[in-house]
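C-alpha cells for chain A. Residues wanted.
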C-alpha cells in the first residue's frame, strides 16, 4: 500500500468527494464499482477510495486490516465514519447492526411513500442527513439509497422524483430565499400549514422545518 502521497494526488482525491459537515457521509462522486465502493487510481494502480481516505487522513498503516464503515455506506469516504478492523470484527459488526439484505428490505417497508417525499423535500431544503436519520428512525446507508434513488424504485416514487427534478431545472418548484422567508412569515403568523404546503407544493413537514427557522435562508 502507499506510504506517502503526492500533493497533486491528495488534491485530485478530495476533488472527487462531496464533503459536508463532519457528522454526515462524504459521498464519493468519482468512479464506483458494482458493489458500491469507490475506486481511485494512483500511478496506474486502482485502490478503494475509502482506504485511501483513511491513509490520507489518519496516516496509520492498514496492513492486514480492513477499513470498515460505521455508517454502512460503501460510497462514504468521511474519515470519521471509518474504522480499522479484522474480517471477524467486520462480520460481527454486520450481524450486530442487522445489515443483511433481509434486514434492509424490512427496514424499507417501515417507510411510506409520503415519508419518502418528506425526506426528499427536507433534504433539498438543507435538512442534515443525521437529523433525517433521527427523525425517520433509519440508518445512513438506507438514507443514502433513498437520496440516490437506489431504494424505493417503484413507479409512483420515481414519478414524484422525476417531476420534481424537472420542475427544479425549470426554476418553478425549487424554493427561493424569498419563498422560504414568506413561508416563515405566514406560518409564524398562525396561518394553516396545510394551506401553505399546498400553495408551494411541499410537505407540511417542510413548512414546520422552515417555521422553526432551520432553513439556510432564515
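Reply:
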Amino acid at each position: 500500500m502507499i506510504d506517502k502521497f503526492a500533493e497533486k494526488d491528495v488534491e485530485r482525491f478530495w476533488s472527487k468527494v462531496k464533503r459536508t459537515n463532519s457528522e454526515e457521509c462524504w459521498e464519493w462522486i468519482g468512479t464506483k464499482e458494482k458493489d458500491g465502493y469507490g475506486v481511485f487510481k494512483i500511478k496506474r494502480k486502482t485502490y478503494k477510495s475509502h482506504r485511501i481516505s483513511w491513509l490520507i487522513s489518519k496516516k496509520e498503516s492498514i496492513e492486514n486490516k480492513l477499513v470498515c464503515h460505521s455508517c454502512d455506506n460503501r460510497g462514504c469516504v468521511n474519515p470519521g465514519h471509518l474504522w480499522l478492523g479484522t474480517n471477524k470484527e467486520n462480520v460481527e459488526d454486520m450481524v450486530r447492526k442487522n445489515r443483511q439484505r433481509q434486514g434492509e428490505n424490512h427496514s424499507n417497508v417501515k417507510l411510506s411513500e409520503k415519508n419518502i417525499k418528506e425526506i426528499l423535500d427536507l433534504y433539498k431544503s438543507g435538512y442534515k442527513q443525521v437529523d433525517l436519520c433521527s427523525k425517520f428512525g433509519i440508518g445512513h446507508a438506507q438514507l443514502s439509497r433513498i437520496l440516490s434513488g437506489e431504494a424505493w424504485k417503484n413507479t409512483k416514487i420515481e414519478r414524484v422524483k422525476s417531476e420534481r427534478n424537472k420542475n427544479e431545472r425549470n426554476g418553478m418548484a425549487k424554493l427561493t430565499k424569498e419563498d422560504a422567508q414568506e413561508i416563515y412569515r405566514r406560518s409564524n403568523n398562525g396561518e394553516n400549514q396545510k394551506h401553505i404546503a399546498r400553495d408551494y407544493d411541499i410537505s407540511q413537514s417542510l413548512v414546520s422545518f422552515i417555521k422553526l427557522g432551520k432553513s439556510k435562508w432564515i
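The beta strands are 17-18, 27-28, 39-42, 45-48, 66-69, 82-85. The first strand starts at residue 17 and ends at 18.
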